[in-house]
Amino acid sequence: MNSYLLKNVSVLGAAPTDLLLRDGVVAEAGPGLSAPEATVLDATGLVALPGLVDLHTHLREPGREDAETVETGSRAAALGGYTAVCAMANTSPVADTAGVVEQVWRLGREAGLVDVQPIGAVTVGLAGERLAELGAMADSAARVRIFSDDGHCVADPRLMRRALEYVKAFDGIIAQHAEEPRLTEGAQMHEGEVSTRLGLTGWPAVAEEAIIARDVLLAEHVGSRLHVCHLSTAGSVEVLRQAKARGVRVTAEVTPHHLLLTDSRAETYDPVYKVNPPLRTATDIAALRAALVEGVIDIIATDHAPHAVEDKECEWAYARPGMLGLETALSIALEVLGPEWDLIAERMSRTPARIAGLTEHGHDPAPGAPANLTLVDPAARRTIDPAESASRSRNTPYARMTLPGRIVATFLRGEATVLDGKAVR
User: How many angstroms separate the CA atoms of 369 and 315, rounded?
Assistant: First the structure.
């Protein structure tokens, strides 16, 4: 195992110090360290953060390896500063059995670039009709603790209640894609002024808010853990705020794109801006940002959704929803929040690791902590070029945008996965 001595690095924006990474942990911290056996990296001007953790990643394998694989998605994650990602279940076959989640877990271990923690489906085939093998997935080698039909809402309230009751036995989580399907049939974008002008069928905010309101009541009744995926409206923020005030065991995420991009992007008819839930209004963005700072929204999650060329380079109505996110998430956080390093660490590492039960992750770089960390150059600005992405897909909404921050290095258990901004392997 390699050792690394990081010289003159700022931990979470503090005064420069040295960090020695050895045997998978931060062995020492302090100024003036020396270690003859270690590879020395000059980290002057760089900020050390705990390795980022993404609670919402689509890796597409098995089934859509033309869009992404566990290996390519893991490489994109490492280049984005991530040391752990949670892989969503909407693969083909669906990750609704112990066999499939173990396959994804083993592929992640073989890639060795980030820890890949599978998320299991709530229902068989994501069909919303009967519960999947929740217990078997929880007892598998992958030790699944989060279950989601993401891309589909668990719309049946009786089935949602049963799922919440089932996972309570092992302190699991149901992560809901909040979308009342009868209110969004044929929807193409956010329902509002822009959709009316463009003549596109709207996706009303209440379709999200109604499901969140129902589910927090069910979670409160059962006493189980609920997580709200990609929260996107000001009204959803208020539902969540009230639920947390009552002590409901609910957490929520917001995506980078819902913190930055508005529904006006649809005016270009460029399908790269088609996403589910859709891009909302400036009012929604302001509410989401405030809730993220306040802690009403717990985390930033990418909803990294790679698509093959033919699924995006087509007419808007036929395009698949989704955007890339792993390699740009930290830059968007810096754009939105500024260099608030402790807040970024809380929303992008500590809290997602805690929600997912990833005990080796989410630790600030300090002696004895697992050496899962990333080094960021806060002074750098970079123009996003889709051709440079490690993902197999190119559907980034940030193409040609100039964003702050650059990931210089990422370490997983003390081993470099990224050095000088490039994947080690």
Answer: 49
**For the domain that residue 371 is a member of, what is the CATH number?**
2.30.40.10
Same domain, 400 and 339: no
Name the domain boundary from 356, 379, 401: 356
pTM above 0.85, yes or no: yes
Write 34-40 long-range contacts (CB < 8 A, 24+). Answer: 34/5, 35/3, 35/5, 37/3, 38/3, 38/4, 38/5, 39/2, 39/3, 39/4, 39/5, 40/4, 40/5, 40/7
Please give the Cα distance from 401 to 397 (Å, whole number): 9
Domain of 69 in residue numbering reads as 51-356
Whether residue 234 is contained in a domain is answered as yes
How would you class 155 by CB atoms within 10 Å of its CB: exposed for 0-12, middle for 13-18, buried for 19 or more?
middle
| pLDDT at 1 (0 to 100) | 83
Query: Which strands, in side-by-side order, build the sheet including 82-87?
Result: 52-57, 82-87, 115-118
Instruction: Examine the domain organization and report whether 144 and 228 are in the same domain.
Output: yes
Q: Is 361 contained in some domain?
A: no
Closest to 145 in 3D by CA, of 163, 166, 171: 171
Is the peptide bond prior to 31 cis by the omega test (within 30 degrees of 0)?
Answer: no
How far is 308 from 287, CA to CA, in rounded Å?
33
Residue of 150, 263, 303, 311 marked active site: 303
CA nearest to 237, candidates 191, 285, 190: 285
Residue 389's beta-bridge partner residues?
Answer: none
Q: How confident is the model at residue 267 (pLDDT cuts 50, 70, 90)?
A: very high
Which are the contacts of 174, defined by CB distance < 8 A and separation ≥ 6?
Answer: 122, 147, 148, 154, 160, 163, 164, 167, 224, 225, 226, 227
Active site includes 303? yes
Whether residues 280 and 177 share a domain: the answer is yes
pLDDT-derived band of residue 187, with 50, 70 and 90 as boundaries?
very high
Q: Give the end of a domain, one of 304, 324, 356.
A: 356
